[in-house]
């Protein structure tokens, strides 16, 4: 599904080169859910932006569905995103002069859905994220956590085969995080591929695999294991878990 | 368990089995249910320390039962317990010791230790997630306990990031 070969991004900042991603080889299979973790500044956002064609690579290759993508121009990337990529930005990027409902329906319409399909999909997604009552609001009227959930709904509106998300729970309290976790679980079960940057261990623990970045390089990459003290544990075991 | 029993007895005198039932009812699945033996042993110690006293109550066609009640000294001990802030979580845990000592012993490099520990924490988090799914939504106490464990685990994980940044 997604494959990168020696992917490099070097920003220029006031004439000084800033290496943000330094030789990443990442292979993600169709239907896989991969969480990307790592300290702030380790290159996580840069990496997912490049995978979505939102930031040009300095060198290396990006392959999507067996096709070379890093050599595509902007309009070809835009088409690819419309057809199969949903992107959740760390800072939402909602369209300010459109309602929440329109923000979410737009990508579905652009991908060729009928107005009715787009509306039904929007109603389903806003419902799942506890936002039904906010459909007619403007993004600026929403709290940060609400905007973040709208951004996730928008990214999922065209049923993308690849969901790229940059810290999609960074502004949520634990109840809203639970809604997002549930939706991500459904999306994963439906077979959509997910690559998601997160600090939140609850989100990461849903993934099939966790990739850790440090200074622009992968320092760990492995399946999420299972840990079991007892097959039928109760909350009482938490006392024991925490010593 | 001592302060729990003192707290229950501050509400009303009770015999051992009633205390066991009350603990189960209050904590739900959030606290491992103590066995009746543990409760009697603890009551015996509290009695020896003068914090509770027992009276024999006659029962028709059954052996007498011992009903415990709180003494003034017990009340003071309970107040002192309630007023004192609880100990914070420990940061100098076993992992920290490994991290500090690893380079000296050559057993593993720090990067490997940190990566392994991160995987372990995420697996623990997955277990807590599943536990919280399985827990009855009405059991607020149990859910809060699980959420507390998750927040601690998250802090541990954030701290691993800091270790990795500074020690690499
Ligand atoms: N547009 C930019 N211009 C210059 N440097 C940048 C730019 N975007 C990111 N960087 C730098 O690249 C590095 C990686 O940033 P980023 O990918 O945002 O990390 P993360 O998402 O892991 O916090 C950081 O050192 C950051 O300062
Ligand atoms: Mg970032």
Structure description:
The complex is a heterodimer of chains A (243) and B (168). Helices cover 34% and strands 27% of the residues of chain A. Chain A is built from eight helices and ten strands. In chain A, helix 3 packs across helix 4. Chain A is globular and about 45 Å long. Chain B has two domains: 2-83, Orthogonal Bundle (Arc Repressor Mutant, subunit A), CATH 1.10.10; 94-167. Chain B is built from seven helices and two strands. In chain B, strands 1-2 form a two-stranded antiparallel sheet. Classes of the chains: A alpha/beta (243), B mainly alpha (168). The interface between A and B is large, with 36 and 44 residues. The structure holds adenosine-5'-diphosphate (ADP) and magnesium ion. Magnesium ion binds at residues 44-45, 90, 166 of chain A.
What are the key terms here?
heterodimer; A: 243 residues; alpha/beta; Rossmann fold; six-stranded mixed sheet; four-stranded antiparallel sheet; 8 helices; 10 strands; globular; B: 168 residues; mainly alpha; Arc Repressor Mutant, subunit A; 2 domains; two-stranded antiparallel ribbon; 7 helices; binds adenosine-5'-diphosphate; binds magnesium ion
């Amino acid at each position: 599904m997604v494959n990168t070969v020696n992917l490099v991004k070097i920003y220029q900042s006031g004439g000084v080169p800033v290496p943000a991603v330094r030789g990443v080889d990442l292979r993600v299979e169709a239907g896989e859910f991969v969480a990307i973790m790592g300290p702030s500044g380790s290159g996580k956002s840069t990496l997912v932006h490049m995978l979505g064609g939102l930031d040009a690579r300095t060198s290396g290759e990006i392959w999507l569905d067996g096709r070379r993508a890093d050599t595509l121009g902007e309009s070809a990337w835009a088409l690819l995103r419309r057809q199969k990529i949903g992107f959740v930005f760390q800072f939402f990027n909602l369209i300010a002069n459109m309602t929440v409902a329109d923000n979410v329906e737009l990508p579905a319409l652009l991908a060729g859905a009928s107005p009715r399909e787009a509306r039904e999909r929007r109603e389903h997604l806003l419902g799942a994220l506890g936002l039904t009552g906010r459909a007619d609001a403007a993004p600026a009227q929403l709290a940060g956590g609400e905007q973040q959930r709208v951004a996730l709904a928008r990214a999922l509106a065209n049923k993308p085969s690849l969901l790229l998300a940059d810290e999609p729970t960074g502004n949520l309290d634990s109840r809203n995080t639970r809604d997002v976790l549930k939706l991500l679980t459904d999306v994963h079960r439906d077979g959509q591929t997910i690559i998601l940057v997160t600090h939140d261990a609850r989100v990461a623990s849903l993934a099939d695999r966790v990739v850790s970045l440090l200074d622009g390089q992968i320092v760990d990459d492995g399946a999420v294991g299972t840990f079991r003290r007892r097959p039928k544990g109760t909350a009482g075991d938490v006392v024991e878990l925490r010593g | 368990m001592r302060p729990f029993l003192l707290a229950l007895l501050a509400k009303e005198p009770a015999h051992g089995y009633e205390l066991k039932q009350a603990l189960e009812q209050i904590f739900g699945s959030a606290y491992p249910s103590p066995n009746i033996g543990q409760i009697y042993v603890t009551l015996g110690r509290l009695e020896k320390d003068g914090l509770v006293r027992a009276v024999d109550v006659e029962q028709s066609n059954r052996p007498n039962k011992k009903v415990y009640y709180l003494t003034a000294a017990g009340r003071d001990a309970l107040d002192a317990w309630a007023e004192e802030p609880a100990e914070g979580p420990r940061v100098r845990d076993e992992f920290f010791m490994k991290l500090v000592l690893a380079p000296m012993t050559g057993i593993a490099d720090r990067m490997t230790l940190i990566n392994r520990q991160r995987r372990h924490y995420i697996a623990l988090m997955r277990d807590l997630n599943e536990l919280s799914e399985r827990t009855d939504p009405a059991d607020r106490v149990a859910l809060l306990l699980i959420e507390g464990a998750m927040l601690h685990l998250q802090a541990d994980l954030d701290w691993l990031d800091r270790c990795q940044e500074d020690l690499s």
